[in-house]
Amino acid sequence: MLVLEQLSKTYEGARRRSVLHGIDLHLAAGEYIAVMGESGIGKSTLLNLIAGLDRPDAGRILLDGVDLTGLDDDALTQLRRASMGFVFQAFHILPYLSLAQNVALPLILNHVDEDEAAARTHAMLAAVGLEGREESMPRELSGGELQRVAIARALVHQPKLLLADEPTGNLDPESAAQVLSLLREQVKTRKAGCILVTHSQAAAATADRIVILTAQGMGAPV
Amino acid sequence: MQAAAVPARSSLRLSRPALFLAPLAQHKGRLAVSVLAIALGVALGYAVQLINAVALNEFSQAVRSIAGEADLEIRGPRAGFDELLYPRIARLPQVAVASPVLDANAKLPGRQEALRVLGIDAFRAARVQPALIGDARGDTLELLRGDALFLSPAAADWLGVKAGDRLAVQVGLSEVNLRVAGLLRGGGRERLGVMDIAAAQKLLQRLGSISRIDVRARPGADLGDLQARIQSILPPGVMVERAQGEAARNAELSRSYRVNLNVLALVALFTGGFLVFSAQALSVVRRRAQLALLRVLGLTRGALLRLLLAEGALIGAIGAAIGLIAGYLMAAAVLQRFGADLGAGEFRGLHPDLHAEPWASLLFFALGVLVAVAGSLTAALEAARAAPAQALKAGDEQTAFARLRPVWPGISLIALGAICTMPGPVGGIPLFGYVAIALLLVGTLALMPRLAGGVFGLLPRPRGAGAQLALAQLRGAPGQAAVSLAAIVASFSLMVAMAIMVASFRVSLDDWLDRVLPADLYLRTGLRGETAFLSPPEEARIAQLPGVRRAEFLRIQKFMLQAARPPVTLLARTLPADNPGRGLPLVGASLLPQPGAPPPLWASEAMVDLYGYAVGQVVELPLAGESRRFTVAGIWRDYARQHGSVIIERERYAALSGDRNSNDAALYLAPGASPDAIEAAIRTALPGGANLEFGSPGEIRARSLRIFDRTFAVTYALEAVAVVIGLFGLSSSFGTLVLARSREFGMLRHVGMTRRQIGAMLAAEGALVSALGLALGLALGWVISLVLIHVVNRQSFHWSMELHSPWGLLALLAAALLVFATLTALASGRRALGVDVVRAVREDW
Ligand SMILES: Nc1ncnc2c1ncn2[C@@H]1O[C@H](COP(=O)(O)OP(=O)(O)OP(=O)(O)O)[C@@H](O)[C@H]1O
Ligand SMILES: [Mg+2]
Fold first, then answer.
1. pTM
2. What is the rounded distance in angstroms from the CA atom of residue B207 to the CA atom of residue B396?
3. Is A80 in contact with B301 (Cβ distance < 8 A)?
4. Which of B35, B651, B670, B784 sits CB 3.0–4.6 Å from B319 for a disulfide?
5. Which residues of chain A make contact with B12, given a CB cutoff of 8 A?
6. Domain layout of chain B by residue ranges
7. Cβ–Cβ gap A77/B299 under 8 Å
8. A88, A92, A118: residue with CB nearest B12
9. pLDDT per residue over B739-774, tens digit each?
């Protein structure tokens, strides 16, 4: 489903920095992989490239055969809106919206009918264990709960691909374990592909397979 | 069971508008301030517009009823022209009917304001100006009786008289009694009296003279042709123009003043837009990560831009709606209290009626929305352009508005502004001058981030952790500092510019009054009436009174140089024979004509601007139906008249025109003579002397300055509103900035900074930013005041003035603003510190 071919990225500017060289990767539909690598190696950069939030200097990114590097910003945005979901280390839940409104955000951006959106939001919140808290505001939640809201938001519009950048980085081990099992369960029931970036062996172990990002390129763990 | 658990859709509020309105509801305070700022600006602009419309409407209505159904009007000097012209016009084949009119503002004993009296030929006027015919109730002969005066309802009201009462009119110094015969059939709302033309000529001592001929052409006649034909037989100084010309000229009379008021009101609106700018800019900085998240989740760049602009439009629409209502109420209150002239002294004797015109309301509504949207534009573009992945990272808001840093747009705007000070007025309005001020202001504001970065970079490292952190923050986020800075610079520079301009004007006026009031005692026959005068025997009586060392008399007349312009004032004065220009407030070089050259004339600055007069030039003036040549011997400053005036020697004027009367006198007293005693002596020595007005130079000066201050009171009020809006902007921008940093403060508290230290840091930031802003505002304001003085004022009123800066006042204002800004920063800090320290760090926002 997702194919990366010889992807390279260099940050231009006053302090030029070459980050990724010749990255190749295949992700089958519904496959769940973990990406590991030392800090600063370019994992977040890689996710940004796949999401179309940044542009590679060389190489191709194919999503179901469509080359993302050939699309303009609006087309990328629409693709992201329809086919991708995101979970961040820092949660990024909008503080002025209720939980339901936060979760429904992708549906609303995709112009899903309001009743339908309400039903799917409700079901999604129930699936992440936050049933009945639709009207709560984000400040009333713990970190682990907030990340569950983020997972609900990432999957509510049934994307093909979920990108998670250290989703458990801000959580205690117990919450982390809960969130990861929830993430895997939801990704698998909804048949979404998933790329999980993590520093944690335990987190990586929940994936179908693990790839290591090094300065030389992408590889299987040794 | 499952279905029942789905919450009702209304409680979830999942519609797009609901989601996008949610952040606005979060910042009701900021929103309210922006809305209020727009509302104030719109209200002021709309009120001024409504009042202007009322005044002009009244005017043209009054003129229409007087000019009636005439096609062409023939007019000359206010003193009138030879009535023998009338039969020559009436006999022209294309003329259907010609109606002669004698038009004079009659002095009423004991009243400041004059009554406009028209002498008409009732039978001809009936076919051209039916509204001017008196309602004689069956006795048509009444229209011709010598003492019968018909009043417009407004005049009868004003004078408190009714049919059958008697009314005294002053001619020369004596009083003539007229009988109020009834009311006019029409006459609109102008204060007006109408009588038979022959009777009026006799009564007003204007035998053989008329002031106007209204002409109706035969159907099918070519008006342009007829106009040219008539002009060819008119003597110099008498002109023919299309009817309604008077309305246009009268509108011209006060146009500069009105346009200035409108512009000031728009300045208030502009500062309102500016406040929206700073509020939206800071809101975008504050919501940077949130907006980036929306982009990541799939909101396109264009949609985000539209979203933020829609926010601006919403603010504008609410503000404008409130502003329209407030403006209407304001206009009604002002009209009630001051009348349509806003205290400027024009439009006397009109009773206004307020109407909200749909197009004007729409225009100001649109202006309010437009200004708010424009204010949001920079912020919206900034947010839409930010790279979403980057903007999600903490600390990225420091780079916000960094894009504003290039210098060339600011520099080129300022350069363009400088160029815009060169061209002349457009249709009598200093359009380019206003544009120049706007460009200078916007250009300087555009340079603000760069200036802020430069100045804060140069400052030495302060002692104390708080001050060091403050400086580091200002250096790290010059874009944010620039937003607060801009609020201060914009409002303070406008304040400084106005203060310098008004001070310069007032001091120059004061000096001028000194120059033009050298005598010990002044007397005049009346300010506005044209029928009162001093005759030569009366002059002689005054001059020969014991105690009067010297008496100089002045004759004031008005004549037309160009049909499209208001009349020019002619001042015929007794001048010292050895050096006639000595007592005049001359500006620039002067000369005396060579022997054999035409006699000298001293022209006011307006003559230079409006008619291109220059020293040494030979010009022609129409005097008593003849064109006379004069040499411009000097240019003088005339703060009393803005449509042009010329001074010539009294003896020469009398010889050329045969008019030996005068209106004013300046008396130099013998040592020891008391002005009061002389005044009493004149009042008793002259029959009708009680009707004279006396004034000492001190009184006249005080009165003039009082009028000046009253005229500028409106200006001050509008200016004050602009400043208040600017201060609003300042405190709201500080508040938002500081609040946005509550996480930072939480962290600083965690690492051991005391509240006091954080307070010191914020106070230092506030003081640094405002000190820089005030310094820049002072410099910019000084430059803008030069544009106001040398371009806007000169082109509007044709007055030059010397620059006088009220430094003491400005220093006081600056100090007050500095204290205000520092306190604001402290107060916002107190609020930000009130946020729970633990939550501040844990929460992402
Ligand atoms: N905007 C930028 N400009 C310049 N260099 C950047 C920029 N963003 C990231 N980098 C650099 O690119 C490299 C890769 O960054 P990236 O955020 O992808 O690392 P990462 O693998 O996600 O690290 P971590 O595990 O710490 O999150 C880093 O060395 C970083 O310094
Ligand atoms: Mg990373």
1. 0.76
2. 87
3. no
4. B35
5. 98, 100-101, 104, 118, 121, 134
6. 14-64+255-393, 69-242, 408-517+697-845, 521-695
7. yes
8. A118
9. 667 667 776 776 667 777 778 888 888 888 889 999
Q: Give the A window 119-148 contacts with B, CB below 8 Å.
A: 119, 121-122, 134-135, 139
Region A166-184: what's the mean pLDDT? Answer: 88
A110 lines ligand 1 (CB under 6 A): no
CB-based contact (8 Å) between A72 and chain B? no
> Across residues B560-564, what is the average pLDDT?
83
In chain B, residues with a C-beta closer than 8 Å to the C-beta of A50 are none
Instruction: Identify the residue whose C-alpha is closest to ligand 1 atom 25.
Output: A39
Question: What are B674's strand-pairing partners?
Answer: none
What average pLDDT score do residues B422-438 get? Answer: 87
Query: Can you state the angle between helices B478-516 and B465-476, rounded to 10 degrees?
Result: 90
For ligand 1, atom 5, name the residue with the nearest CA: A11
| Calpha distance A152→A146 (Å, rounded) | 10
- CA of B661 relative to ligand 2 center, distance in Å: 97
CA distance A51 to chain B (A): 8
Residues B349 and B393 sit within 8 Å (Cβ to Cβ): no
- What range does the domain containing A102 cover? 2-218
| Complex ipTM value | 0.86
Mean pLDDT value across chain B = 82
Q: For residue A155, give both structure tokens.
A: 């999957």
SS3 of B149-181: EEECHHHHHHHCCCCCCEEEEEECCEEEEEEEE
Q: What is the pLDDT of residue B558?
A: 87
Q: How far is Cα B453 from Cα B404, in angstroms, rounded to an integer?
A: 12
Percent of chain B beyond pLDDT 90?
23
How many CB pairs below 8 A link A and B? 106
Positive or negative: CA dihedral B570, B576, B581, B583: negative
| Cβ–Cβ < 8 Å for B179, B166 | yes
